[in-house]
């Protein structure tokens, strides 16, 4: 088995990671684009490792997003009836609305800020991790995504020849 990493493999692996950003243009393209690139080239060990890492990370981000949504759902349902009643009260009696009715919005504001903070943090993590993975792939190095769940098992022993820095190997 040839364990050297060609420039083509480095470029293809980098494209696998970058292709996850297609989700901002096409729904679920963050799964389909890397899956297509990986599945057509998975016989190459370097591309195989990067493809599995990219898909695992995207599945992990989806799972974390769903967990955030599910954790917030009970609070949303709890506040929903109060919120509707509050809006109707303010709508019909705006001039007579008291500050106490507006204070009832505190729960919604806290929930909204919490959800936005968690989702923004997940977005920043994803942005950082995908860019880092792309740079490592372009250099011919293996990259392990942070907080990634291994849904698709990667080879436990990646040949050390695959994890080469630019100074160690050039094609």
TrEMBL record:
Keywords: Membrane, Transmembrane, Transmembrane helix. It is found in: Membrane. It is a multi-pass membrane protein. Pfam families: MamF_MmsF. The chain crosses the membrane at residues 21-40, 61-87, 107-131. InterPro entries: MamF_MmsF (IPR019109). Signal peptide: none annotated. This is DUF4870 domain-containing protein. It comes from Cochleicola gelatinilyticus.
